[in-house]
Design a protein that fits this description.
Length: 525
């Protein structure tokens, strides 16, 4: 088999690259996907009509190109309550700059392939109370934490603002400089170390630079004050966005539609096909051996290769074998694996924090669990992502997220034991009773998060330099670049890789600039 461009991975990055190449007139483009699923970490799992969003995916980007790309595949639906009144609909979201676009909104919520406009709410659960996320110091926090503790937070933040840690080497330094040591210890340290499995002192400050960026207590307060005075506030940090788009049936719907469009335009999509070896000749990738359905081997001659596969796997697949020092560094790269436990409840515990004073289910999309003594890190409320994610509107459909490593005790537990753990922890947190569970399932995602720690990560530039010298090899996406990209960052890296192939350009620096340089990341009109 021969193909002009072979793309490894049918997630956001791989499908974006494939579509961009075909739309520009490139022929003979093939995507191989190791699993039988479309969308990678952004896929939607359908469990008996109840849908699971693995990790939670808000469709919002500072890039107008990304927003247009999404809206082109899935138009925005007018809510049924505002049918025919587009002006009123737009006025309701005038603070979310660029969210609705400029095209007329003609789709309706009754249609299937559409996106909904959703309100964003995510909070921290600690001590039986909810706290704003990002943290917003104010009377609510004082009432829940006490005057003395909040005075300590304020003094600690003031000291960090006056005497910031320099140089800023670790994630601990990053958090302390922006929130103060006391807030860091209260709200960031334990959760972050639960996610990554190592001390914040061992994690690079680059993680904070990519995920939190310039957000701080000061920025959060300014945002809140501006909103109080003007009634609206432009969100300068993605973490402050208050509305977002969301496919009616979860994020995987976007990528299933993208895959169908890719095939309609003539692309070849091969599921159950894992890249086994990359054969190089004269410094270029000239063929790729693909393992199909875990048995049949297929040799594919290629002109260009785009990889979204984990860098560790890519280096190990190179033939001739990579240089010994590069191979050693790659084998030392670490990853965090992800487990979602879907729990379907008839109802949660009445009187718990999951219901407001009027008895309605809270509106949170996800909740960060800061309580000590539990392994669950975050709680998704799928009813609030989209009502169409839940088969029975009278039930409550939750996703409990656990973070693990593929050789630790949690990952090696049976699905039945993990379900029991999730049910027990919901009861321990005082949020739901075990007897109210109607059904449950477990979804495992290996290598969900590339690790920002360890000796190998500190030497990652050597791997990048080694791979960048192969002119027809392009790395894109989260695992492909070993970078904590959101799906819009992955798409931007794919766009730039496709453009480089179309131009015959060998410079890959612009691809690596995505999600590193703030000015580039905040791309807008």
């Amino acid at each position: 088999m021969k193909t002009d461009v072979l793309i490894a991975g049918a997630g956001p990055a791989g499908l974006t690259a494939g579509l961009e190449l075909l739309r520009a007139g490139k022929q003979n483009v093939t995507i191989v996907e190791a699993s039988r699923e479309i969308g990678g970490l952004s896929r939607t799992v359908n469990f008996k009509g109840n849908r699971i969003d693995i990790g939670g995916h808000r469709f919002f980007s500072k890039s107008d190109w990304v927003m247009d790309w999404w809206r082109d595949l899935l138009p925005i639906a007018m809510p049924e309550a505002l049918a025919g009144d587009e002006k009123r609909f737009r006025l309701g979201y005038q603070g979310a700059a660029g969210l609705l676009g400029h095209e007329a909104i003609t789709a309706t919520e009754a249609e299937n392939n559409v996106m909904l406009v959703r309100s964003r709410l995510s909070r921290i659960y600690f001590g039986g109370n909810f706290f704003d996320y990002p943290l917003r110091p104010g009377l609510d926090m004082v009432a829940k934490m006490g005057v003395g503790r909040c005075v300590g937070f304020a003094g600690s933040y003031a000291w960090s603002a006056l005497k910031p840690i320099a140089p800023e080497n670790s994630l601990e330094d990053f958090f302390i400089n922006r929130f103060g040591r006391q807030l860091y210890l209260q709200f960031f340290k334990e959760y972050t170390e639960k996610v990554w499995g190592v001390s914040c002192r061992e994690i690079s400050a680059a993680w904070g630079a990519q995920r939190v960026k310039s957000l701080s207590i000061g920025k959060a307060l300014m945002h809140a004050a501006r909103k109080a005075v003007t009634g609206q506030a432009k969100a300068e940090q993605t973490s402050l966005i208050e509305s977002f788009l969301y496919p009616k049936y979860g994020p995987g719907q976007m990528w299933e539609v993208a895959a169908a469009e890719f095939e309609r335009l003539g692309g070849r999509l091969m599921l159950g096909c894992r890249v086994d070896e990359l054969h190089c000749s004269e410094g270029r990738v000239d063929s790729v051996r693909v393992c199909r359905d875990s048995s049949e081997m297929l040799e594919v001659d290629v002109d260009q290769f785009i990889s979204t596969m984990p860098v560790r796997d890519l280096i190990c697949a190179l033939r001739p074998v990579a240089e010994s020092n590069v191979l050693k560094i790659a084998k030392g790269l670490q990853y965090r694996d992800f487990i979602t436990v879907g729990l379907l409840y008839k109802n949660l515990r009445r009187g718990s924090a999951m219901y407001d004073r009027s008895g309605q289910l809270v509106r949170d999309n996800w909740i960060y669990i800061q309580e000590p003594g539990v392994k669950v890190g975050r709680l998704q409320v799928f009813n609030n992502w989209s009502p169409y994610m839940v088969a029975d509107q009278d039930s409550v459909w939750l996703g409990l997220e656990f973070f693990a490593r593929d050789d630790d005790e949690l990952w090696l537990m049976s699905d039945a034991d993990i379900m029991s753990l999730a049910i027990q922890e919901m009861q321990q947190l005082g949020l739901a009773d075990a007897g109210a569970v109607l059904d449950a399932t477990v979804i495992r995602m290996p290598k969900a998060y590339p690790g920002y720690f360890g000796e190998s990560y500190e030497k990652f530039d050597l791997i990048r330099a080694y791979l960048d010298q192969i002119p027809n090899l392009f790395l894109i996406g989260r695992n492909g670049m070993h970078r904590y990209n959101n799906q819009d960052h992955s798409m931007l890296s794919a766009k730039l890789a496709a453009q480089a192939i179309l131009r015959g350009a060998g410079d890959k620096s612009s691809i690596w600039a995505v999600n590193i340089d703030d000015e580039y990341h905040e791309e807008s009109k």
